[in-house]
């Protein structure tokens, strides 16, 4: 049976804001959460890392370590990775992304990776392409082959609630909350930016 993955509101809204703030750059981050009693995985939050990266740089390593420490402090784990590409139609998981996802999987065997499909934003779609790997060592990451289609009824990939895509678009277009969002890159330029929590941009009702 396929592992069930659920992305909650704070996690989805934050990764969506990351893309919206830097629509023409590569962005990446990690998902933190926990394994559920039924063996599924629940991503309860997202921690944004960088928006101008090309390799596993020292800053990337530091960001990953700090994100892991933050998850530990909350009694959670780093359970996944996300990225978006410069081109809206590109949904490939870059080699750097594969390396980071593999590193996460070595610490959490059910880790998953998602690539944002910017071409689907605004179409009431989750706009996420999931990648999984069967093994932690020298992992080979492949797009999900499960049916039905990810983030549709009956799929092991779900949003909670399923109205999140429309909500995220509204928060960007009407309230411009993504402009308050900050990642680790932003924090390096302004240490006052709370990139680990981003409380200023996430509505309390989520």
TrEMBL record:
Q: Where is the MPN domain?
A: 5-137
Annotated coiled-coil segments of the chain: none
One Pfam short name:
UPF0172
Q: What is the lineage of its organism?
A: Eukaryota, Fungi, Dikarya, Basidiomycota, Agaricomycotina
A single GO CC term for this protein reads: EMC complex
The entry's family comment says:
Belongs to the EMC8/EMC9 family.
**What PANTHER family does the record point to?**
ER MEMBRANE PROTEIN COMPLEX, ER MEMBRANE PROTEIN COMPLEX SUBUNIT 8_9 HOMOLOG
Q: Which species does the entry assign this protein to?
A: Leucocoprinus birnbaumii
State the protein's name: MPN domain-containing protein
């Amino acid at each position: 049976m396929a592992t069930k993955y659920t992305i909650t509101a704070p996690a989805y809204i934050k990764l969506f804001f990351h893309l919206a703030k830097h629509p023409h750059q590569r962005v990446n981050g990690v998902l933190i959460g926990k394994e559920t009693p039924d063996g599924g995985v629940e991503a309860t939050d997202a921690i944004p890392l960088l928006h101008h990266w090309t390799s596993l740089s020292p800053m990337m390593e530091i960001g990953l370590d700090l994100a892991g420490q933050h998850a530990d402090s909350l009694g959670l784990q780093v359970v996944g990775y996300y990225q978006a590409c410069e081109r809206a139609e590109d949904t490939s998981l870059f080699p750097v992304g594969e390396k980071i996802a593999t590193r996460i999987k070595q610490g959490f065997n059910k880790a998953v990776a998602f690539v944002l499909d910017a071409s689907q934003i605004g179409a009431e779609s989750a706009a996420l392409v999931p990648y999984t790997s069967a093994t932690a060592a020298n992992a080979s990451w492949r797009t999900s082959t499960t049916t039905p289609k990810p983030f549709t009824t009956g799929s092991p990939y779900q949003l909670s609630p399923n109205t999140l895509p429309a909500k995220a678009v509204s928060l960007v277009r009407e309230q411009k909350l993504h402009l308050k969002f900050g990642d680790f890159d932003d924090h390096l330029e302004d240490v006052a930016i709370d990139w680990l929590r981003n409380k200023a941009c996430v509505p309390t009702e989520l």
